[in-house]
Amino acid sequence: MSIVALLPAHDEERSIESSIRSLRSSASSPHRVVVVCDNCTDRTAEIARACGAEVFLTQDNRARKAGALNQALRAVDFGDDDLLLIMDADTTLGPEFLPTALERLRDPSIGAVGAVFGAGPTTSLLETFQACEWSRYREQLRSTGKVWVLSGTAALIRGKVLRQLSEARGDTVPGVRGDVYRTDALTEDFEITLAIKTLGWKLCSPIRCSTTTETMPTWQDLWRQRLRWYAGAIETLKTYPVSRVTIRYFLQQALLLLGVIGMSLYLLATVLNTALFGFHPHPAWLLLGLVFWAERVGTAWRGSTVRQRFLSALFLPEFCYALFLQAVYLASWYQVLRSRRVEWTHLKEVTA
């Protein structure tokens, strides 16, 4: 059994060296590290070779990350007993990721082990918001153990699973036969999660399987990223039938939509009531608000920085951040219902 790391990269000269070094420093280092250079115009390939990695150049790929990975997986020789580490080129792997993932894969029913991602050092308020959000997601995984998405930042997947997936496309799961990743999916990590679960495999994301990835530097970048995430999840679910695997995802989307609509109506009613009758808070609502505040602080406390804890304690800034994300979620539904395609925009293209 060998571990082959595939790092899809599009103009990642700023981060590719640290990503490769994090793999090399792991206690269970991959046997091969392959950087999949997809339409790169910078020094990504040169830096990758200097770091000792192999470089695979895609040919005429127009299907972004999914298309690049499909080409690389066809070119890389791997067997059913081998393991493929699919890892973003802007991500660094925690030292315990591979040893922990290998230990979990001793269970033959587990098909893949995903990452629990976090943010690196934060400097801006927006970056701190995202760091707090991901801290809460980590706590959710710790408490429930349920894997909703096999994180695109890093996932160790059995070669057998990938082969089964390519053979099942167009039959048991949606897609084109021979492809591992669906090229029409906006969120390839969410889609492959549904596909692997549909094939009957279990997934896990242990807390020790940590990665550090980049946050969005501007509100515009964050809007576009989350619009793709939210709309991608909705569009992917539309292509799957209701089953024991997908039913919880359909229910999740329904509850999220109801929650966002409910919050919008609550804020509207509060504004109208204050405008007509003045602000007279009821003790019951104040108590409920205190409980909500305690929950927000508590879920962001473990493993957070002092800056993140202070921001959570202030409550109102994070509440405004949550409203921003809810606005993106509503916008994603608007795009899907209007059959408008959300485009995948690279971070460098947005901020240039």
TrEMBL record:
<dbReference type="InterPro" id="IPR029044">
    <property type="entry name" value="Nucleotide-diphossugar_trans"/>
</dbReference>
<dbReference type="Pfam" id="PF13641">
    <property type="entry name" value="Glyco_tranf_2_3"/>
</dbReference>
<keyword id="KW-1133">Transmembrane helix</keyword>
<feature type="transmembrane region" description="Helical">
    <location>
        <begin position="313"/>
        <end position="334"/>
    </location>
</feature>
<comment type="similarity">
    <text>Belongs to the glycosyltransferase 2 family.</text>
</comment>
<keyword id="KW-0472">Membrane</keyword>
<feature type="transmembrane region" description="Helical">
    <location>
        <begin position="254"/>
        <end position="277"/>
    </location>
</feature>
<keyword id="KW-0808">Transferase</keyword>
<protein>
    <submittedName>
        <fullName>Glycosyltransferase</fullName>
    </submittedName>
</protein>
<dbReference type="GO" id="GO:0016757">
    <property type="term" value="F:glycosyltransferase activity"/>
</dbReference>
<keyword id="KW-0812">Transmembrane</keyword>
<keyword id="KW-0328">Glycosyltransferase</keyword>
